[in-house]
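Figure 3 (text version): structure tokens given as input.
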């Protein structure tokens, strides 16, 4: 794989780069692993979703972006837009490092809307001449001309007692006050949440203190991308802690994205959870998720996530000089104190031609004839079978990406070890979920290099990247009496070059 010099990695975009990037885009657009209904990098590498919001009649999503290749180089923000959370349009570069406070990258942050203006609170990753990092939480906004402005002073600087790992501000208001929640690492290398408040947006910020979670001291060695959201009467605290130990079925990825449901006590700087934290996603690739700032839904949040994780590599597309995807947008509700995650409603419209249908185990129609479609939406209901097995992108004597369910043990397993192209296999190639109440339904979204499995209409989600080769082109299905429908997926995200 390509090695990057420092200079190449810390290069920012300039108008002269258009042709180079257009060429890069044209080359990667040929890839068999480009998506058709997921947001993907126009060129180079994407990671976290940022500034996710509903504003001016549209959903806006920004992603962490290194334009020039598949490496975590100098981070910019790229903008995509949607009317319905299913069809997304590339809008172009939104933010680049151009001030002292973000000279080594515009890192992750959140959107905030006031008086019809869209603001962003983000982390300016600064490095000094000795290579020492100085993180700043910076405010930016889009002015009347549609141009991005940045405040000339940072809102927050690294506080005493914490290391340079201080980032990913979530700006919000509560009871007439402004708040910023930041991920931090203390000098003992423990992951912490810090809460700041102010009476004014652009100044007067003061550290309230650490936001404690009742029953917990700290979370791993660093907390990234904290987010807090009110859903009905409940609060949701989302974050990406680094350094959790794997425990059986849980926390098997290098880094995991988790949440608490509970109550937020602003006065005592305490989050009171209604139970232990849980993983947002039980697949192989999911991290740094963020809820949208929105007034579209009451009692519902909307979530975007990075279909990847820090320190993972994806050799198949890295070699093609691009990396990363966003997961499908999810609608979040809390039912009986439990988080339910459903694919955004508009994604239903992506069900195209029916390719296969089985009712009570008998095949009603089949135009696939055992050949795996590159994109598909599959729905399985009320299974009454002792075992179920779906092999996607299989070939003879190889199971491809396998989804199996064992009714006796109530165990759902996804497995990608049988595929030719492997990635991050040191973190295992199976993921298992024991379903307390058994399996009632599966909704599966396949988009060339990704599979998202929604279990029991939102009880669990498993998101996994895969890189099937041309020869891995079969689908096999096993199970008695199953009801299964497979649709072709309608393309919803044009792979266009917009800078
Ligand atoms: C999470 C993260 C954030 C940071 C950003 C940099 O993946 O490490 O903490 O702001 O990515 O791209």
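Below: residues designed for each position.
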């Amino acid at each position: 794989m390509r090695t990057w010099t420092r200079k190449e990695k810390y290069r920012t975009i300039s108008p002269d780069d258009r042709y180079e990037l257009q060429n890069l885009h044209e080359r990667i657009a040929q890839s068999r692993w480009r998506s058709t209904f997921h947001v993907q990098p126009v060129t180079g590498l994407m990671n976290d979703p940022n500034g996710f919001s509903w504003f001016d009649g549209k959903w806006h999503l920004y992603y962490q972006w290194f334009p020039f290749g598949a490496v975590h180089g100098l981070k910019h923000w790229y903008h995509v837009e949607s009317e319905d959370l299913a069809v997304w349009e590339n809008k172009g570069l939104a933010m680049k490092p151009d001030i002292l406070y973000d000279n080594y990258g515009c890192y992750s942050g959140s959107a905030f809307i006031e008086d019809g203006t869209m603001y962003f609170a983000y982390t300016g990753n600064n490095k000094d001449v000795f290579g020492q990092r100085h993180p700043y939480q910076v405010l930016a906004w889009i002015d009347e001309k549609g141009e991005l402005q940045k405040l000339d002073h940072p809102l927050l600087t690294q506080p005493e007692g914490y290391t340079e790992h201080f980032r990913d501000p979530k700006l919000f208001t509560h009871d007439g006050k402004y708040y910023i929640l930041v991920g931090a690492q203390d000098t003992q290398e423990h992951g912490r949440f810090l809460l700041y408040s102010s009476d004014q947006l652009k100044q007067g910020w003061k550290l309230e203190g650490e936001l404690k979670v009742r029953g917990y001291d700290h979370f791993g060695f660093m907390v990234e991308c904290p987010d807090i959201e009110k859903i009905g009467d409940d609060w949701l605290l989302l974050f990406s802690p680094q350094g959790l130990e794997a425990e059986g079925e849980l926390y098997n990825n290098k880094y995991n994205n988790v949440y608490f449901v509970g109550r937020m006590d602003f006065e005592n700087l305490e989050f009171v959870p209604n139970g232990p934290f849980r993983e947002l996603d039980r697949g192989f690739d999911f991290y740094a998720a963020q809820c949208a700032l929105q007034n579209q839904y009451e009692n519902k949040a909307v979530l975007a996530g990075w279909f990847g994780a820090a320190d993972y590599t994806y050799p198949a597309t890295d070699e093609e000089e691009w990396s990363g995807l966003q997961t499908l947008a999810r609608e979040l509700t809390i039912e009986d104190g439990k988080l339910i995650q459903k694919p955004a409603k508009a994604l239903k419209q992506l069900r195209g031609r029916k390719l296969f249908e089985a009712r009570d185990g008998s095949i009603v129609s089949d135009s696939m004839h055992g050949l795996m479609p590159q994109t598909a939406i599959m729905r399985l209901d009320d299974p009454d079978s002792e075992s179920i097995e779906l092999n996607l992108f299989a070939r003879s004597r190889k199971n491809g990406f396998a989804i199996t369910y064992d009714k006796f043990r109530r165990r759902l397993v996804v497995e990608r070890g049988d595929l030719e192209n492997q990635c991050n296999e040191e973190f295992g190639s199976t993921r298992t979920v024991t379903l307390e109440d058994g399996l009632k339904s599966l909704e599966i979204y396949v988009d060339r290099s990704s599979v998202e499995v929604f279990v029991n209409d939102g009880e669990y989600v498993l998101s996994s990247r895969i890189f099937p080769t041309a020869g891995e082109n079969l689908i096999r299905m096993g199970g008695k009496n199953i009801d299964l429908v497979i649709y072709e997926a309608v393309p919803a995200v044009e792979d266009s070059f917009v800078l």
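Residues 47-48, 64, 75, 107-108, 123, 167-168, 224-225, 287-288, 310 surround beta-D-fructofuranose (CB under 6 Å).
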